[in-house]
Amino acid sequence: MNFNHLKELDETYFQHAKCASLYSMLFLGLSIVSIIHAIFPFIFCTTVSDKLEEMQEHLEERKCEM
Question: Does residue 14 have a pLDDT over 90?
């Protein structure tokens, strides 16, 4: 466990909770999109991968270690 995680990100508990909750909701949405794409492969062809790339960039800006 990294008990310095919030300090390393320079975030308060509530700032971190907000960001983590937003990511959680986004992952839920992307899961639904993935299921739809599995059934209808001709729609949402790059939606999930594009969004994951955006998320990776955002995490790198926040200095999160994966």
Answer: yes
